[in-house]
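User: what does the whole thing look like in 3D?
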Amino acid sequence: MTLDKNTIINDSLLFSIIIIISILGLTILYSATNENIDIVIRQGTRLIFCFFLMILVSSIDINRIRFISPYIYAFSIFLLVVTLFWGHDSKGATRWVMIFGFSLQVSEILKIILPMTLAWFLSLSEDKDFDIKKLIASFIIIFLPIAFVIKQPDLGTSLIILLCGIISIFLAGIKRSHIAYLFGLFLVIAPLMWKFLLLPYQKKRILTLIDPSSDPLGSGYHIIQSKIAVGSGGFFGKGFLNGTQSQLEFLPERGTDFIFAVFAEEFGFIGVMILFLLYLLIIIRFIHITQKAKSYFSKILAGSITCIFVLLIITNVSMAVGLLPVVGVTLPLLSLGGSSLLSIFFAFGIMFSINRRA
Amino acid sequence: MRKSFLEFSRINTEKLFQNRFNILIVLLIILSSLLIARLYFLQVVSFNHFDTLSKTNRIKFISTPPRRGIIYDRNNTVLADNASLYSIEINIEKKRDLQKIIDAIKKEIGLSKEEIENFYEKKYKYSHYNSIVLKSNLNEEEVAKILSIRYKYDGLDVTASLLRKYPYKEITHHVLGHVGYIDKKDLASLDKKKYRNMQYIGKTGVEKFYENELYGNPGYKHVEINARGRQIRDLDIGYAEPGEDIHLTIDIELQKFMFDALSKYSGSSIALNPNTGEILGMVSLPSIDPNDRLWKYGFEQEELKKLKSPLFNRSINGLYSPGSTIKPLVALSSIQNKIINPEEEIFAGPYFQLPNSPRRFRDWKPEGHGMVDLNRAIVQSCDVYFYKLADRLGIEKLSNFFEQFSFGKKTGIDMPYESKGVLPSNEWKQKNIGYKWTDGDTVITGIGQGFFLATPLQLAHATSILANKGVISIPKLNKKSVPKKSKDILNREEFFKKNITDMDWDIITNAMFDVVNKENGTAYWSIRDRKNNIAGKTGTVQVYSLSQETDERDEENIPEHLKDHSLYVAFAPKEDPKIVIATVIENVGSGSKFAAPISNRIINFYLDNKLEKY
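Assistant: Here's the predicted 3D structure for the full assembly of 972 residues, as structure tokens:
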């Protein structure tokens, strides 16, 4: 395993686009935090750390990554237990845990660890049929961490993690008849979940999506303000640091959940299209890597990462334009926060590693 | 055969994967296209609509304060109420020429130098606020004048806010506490969402303890503001939920009577109903009228100093040696531990000495009491008798017994910041003083001196346990609250039931009755009207330590702050107690001369004038 440039950063286009979007992220964060340079520097430090992590991960052979996957899964379950008992609170939920002086949101990194574990598990018996035993075992792997995340309570993230898991088993070839059964089961369980599992504030969020004026003080307000920010950006945007919605603090959670609204207000439709184009280039490279992947494990994992990456972007932007409830999904590479960066760059590292073996 | 099957399977899996991957990619492309269409709709098609919204009609939310709950006494007399208060507020969010605005206001209605200095001080202190009050309590003419110049100065506003009023002023201050500005310390612990844009919060007393109930829930206004930040119109209003009214157990007439009776002194008096734990009256002096000061400049340190700490609530925070008021409990403990026969007469000379020690523990009566039994020892408050009991009991038994009466523990009253006092024990001394407990320490604990410290509320509470023959009622101020007896309390009630007979209780309460009603009792001369059958015990606590060699002290020339504290605890009527009282008066002299007559008058006032009302 030499640290040769060719073997590690084996896709210079992908690498450069990651750097470009990261810098773009710091720039928009500067505006979103009302020009708070301290926060930007802190986020920049996290980015540099994550870059090194990415290079480290990409230098590891993909078969070795496959081998350690179950251990990483076990460790993340351990961290979820720690979060449950010793985690610290923010806004009524216990989602963070301190390790080595860093505050880590374990549910964020599950978005990558779960597909990894599923790909490992399913590759153990890749030549066998995707039978009911395999299916049940897969669902145990999926729901064990989700149970902890629901307890935090963080329903939005739980649903996203569930989707990540479903994408993986879908790609791994779950039988069509099983899909039909699961869908039927979902139709039965969903109304029960609404009745017994959802907390009042969660129901409220979903209802306000249908009718924002039903809760103008809470999440309805967020949606209204975010839509005004995006809409008033127009075709060319109001210009960097000139977004009134964000600068006058009408927009809530500007650095994290609604960073896209800040971007759309200041850089307009044209800016958004350029951002999407940059994301598209990443996705095209991802698809390319997935096609070329040799082993079953790499194929499933690369395919899952590709789809999850797109899914996160779509979810976050849909929140900002009022198409989805406010579920607290970050925008990859742009949102403030260390845990989501960590999982994204970990995924990048894996993609580079898969590419090397292709 | 097997190999070919594997290959087939692999090709098959690969095909399936490709198929599935394509499905997902197509799905995601469709979703992305929808999203782009949505963005196009928002940013290009509806641009004008959202542009107008963002430029002219900015929507902001303003919290509206809820009406704070009113506090009543037990007969529905208002003790704390709300009124409107007009103030001049200046917005400090943006950089402005504040001096220009202030000068203009000064020209219209006049401002004192103090008011202006205060504004700048507050601006610094409360920099996290949007606006700062420049002048409060405006009259109507002043309001009109300011409104007429408001349009000229951006950031100047007249606001109406709720003002808390305490009609009984200093009489109720220590019970009710007061509300005040939310400071940075409050901010750390409160629900910021609930207190957004609010200025006041309960700081002490009932106002603090029942803050959640009294506060209610704020409403909101959904208002449009223009680019300069001024409100244009209300869009949507969510009405505030008013706070709950609270009915206290206090009887304001009794409270007033108690306050007047103690008005010349520093100290505290507490009257409670032993059956229910309801506090009937609770005063702490000196006190201060909270009304004006709170809203203008807050309390001034110099004024407070001059008034001998009027903000200090002696009822629950003042720590005093219980003195001779503890003797009935020492006697009861001796009976329970069977170290004395109550009938037995013991010789009590002028002093008590421990073996092998030259130190003389003197009696308050220089010539001694001669032969005394338990009853006489309590009635005449014979120190030497109790020195002997304490010495025989030892500190561990004494300390354990006092603990059963809540000494060294919070009584659990519904007030914030209650003090625990000090329950004397070897452990406590080792930990806090660093020395081992000595036999001499035990001896003086027998007459309630030394390390033993209690609050007036603890004295009243312990007396109510005595009057109730071991049933513990937790003191309370809110009529509606039903304090739950903790396991500790239930255990203690069990202890009394098991270890102390009705006869034992009667020996003690009869002796306390004789203190007030027998001619040689220390409180005999403190009352004229004896029909209410009061049982009590006086206490005189030395602040100034007497030299052990010379007995005489020069009563006339003791400086005031070294004079004795005067204490008295009592309950009445003896057969079926309806009221318990504990009174501490600082630096005046003996218990029988000051605290006893005042307390007995309070008891008679209550039983003669008030009781039939409930």
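In plain terms: Residues 2-45 of chain B form the longest helix (44 residues). Chain B has 23 helices and 19 strands.
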